[in-house]
Design a protein that fits this description.
The protein is α/β, with parallel strands linked by helices. Helices cover 43% and strands 15% of the residues. 50% of the residues are buried. Bound molecules: guanosine-5'-diphosphate-beta-L-fucopyranose.
């Protein structure tokens, strides 16, 4: 990729896409093509084909997806399957047909079987049943990585796939119904502290373990893979250690300064008991994470405090890339 290559970041208003744009801008890339959801409906095949035919991006980071936490995944199975399959099918196919040199597709650690041996290697894909709370999203993501593989085999299209673990950072979704656990707990503890509530409710048993990667580390990995990796096998991108949800809650409470009681709500689902990625493949290529979880949460909380009102309504992500050299039709 040259500094003046035309690079399309699909999904630049989301957690991952906005981090990739920040990383690209920081590295000096000056020709970044962006379209907001209002200006380009990625679920519409015709619209996506027209966009690619007109703009012919040389490189594509496919970070657009319908995402959400355990409750959102469980509540909207049709949307998680339909929208994700549509977005990725349209973008991958249009990129191939319009001469894109290389595309990076982003998946998720939930593609692996719920009972996979931990840490989970890339090879354990499709060796067992999926976790039921997010199988619809997982099926869509498996379809995406297989499409990249198939287009490479049949057409020689240089598509690669990265499978990140649970992500967090600035620009996350802080809606309490649809978000992932880390932003939800940042908001819950912050609101309890501000409103002097004595208690915060944490879903499930607190026993499940999760691996958390700061989104700026993932953005580094995406640029690294785009520049250094060109093979059909998808690549895990994890932090390398996991912690229990109970431990995470206590850590966030301490960082936020909440001194009340943490109450578990066992009526809410636990989901997968553990999903730690084996990230030896990308580590052997030369990438490693830089942001320890405590520092990452401190940074995320600082961002949340500075953007509280916008973070809660979800209209914040635009400002994350507003000063970059980007075009947004
Ligand atoms: O982050 P999360 O929603 O998704 O939940 P998954 C992780 C764990 O945190 C579960 C618990 O055991 C939740 O019950 N938890 C505790 C909470 N309090 C809360 C809370 O206030 N909000 C939320 N959301 N959780 C997702 C998948 O699974 O992981 C997606 O649904 C995706 O498909 C993503 O793969 C990476 O880690 O269980």
């Amino acid at each position: 990729m040259k500094l003046n290559s035309l690079i399309f970041v699909a999904g630049h208003q989301g957690l991952v896409g906005s981090a990739i744009v920040r990383r690209l801008v920081g590295a000096g890339f000056e020709n970044i093509l962006l379209r907001s959801r209002a200006n380009l409906d990625l679920t519409s095949q015709q619209t996506v084909n027209d966009f690619f035919a007109e703009n012919r991006p040389e490189y594509v980071f496919l970070a657009a997806a319908k995402v959400g936490g355990i409750l959102a995944n469980d509540s909207y199975p049709a949307e998680f399957l339909r929208d994700n399959v549509a977005i990725q099918t349209n973008v991958i196919d249009a990129a191939y047909r319009n001469g894109t040199r290389k595309l990076l597709f982003l998946g998720s650690s939930c593609i692996y079987p719920r009972n996979a041996p931990q840490p989970m290697t890339e090879e354990c894909l499709l060796t067992g049943s999926l976790e039921p709370t997010n199988e619809w999203y997982a099926i869509a993501k498996i379809c995406g990585l297989k499409m990249c593989q198939a287009y490479r085999r049949q057409y020689g299209f240089r598509a690669i796939s990265a499978m990140p673990t649970n992500l967090y950072g600035p620009g996350d979704n802080f809606d309490l119904e649809t978000s992932h656990v880390l932003p939800a707990l940042v908001r819950k503890f912050d609101e309890a502290k501000l409103n002097q509530h004595p208690e915060v409710e944490v879903w499930g048993s607190g026993a499940p373990r999760r691996e958390f990667l700061h989104v700026d580390d993932l953005a580094n990995a995406c640029l690294f893979l785009m520049q250094n990796y060109d093979s059909e096998l998808w690549v895990n991108v994890g932090f390398g250690e996991d912690i229990s949800i109970g431990h995470l809650a206590r850590l966030i409470a301490r960082i936020v300064g909440f001194e009340g009681t943490i109450r578990m709500d066992p009526s809410k689902p636990d989901g997968a008991s553990r999903k730690l990625l084996d990230s030896r493949r990308i580590r052997a290529l030369g990438w490693k994470p830089q942001i320890p979880i405590e520092l990452g949460i401190e940074r995320t909380y600082k961002w949340y405090q500075e953007n509280r009102a916008l973070a809660i309504v979800g209209a914040h992500t635009r400002t994350l890339v507003s000063d970059s050299k980007c075009t947004d039709g």
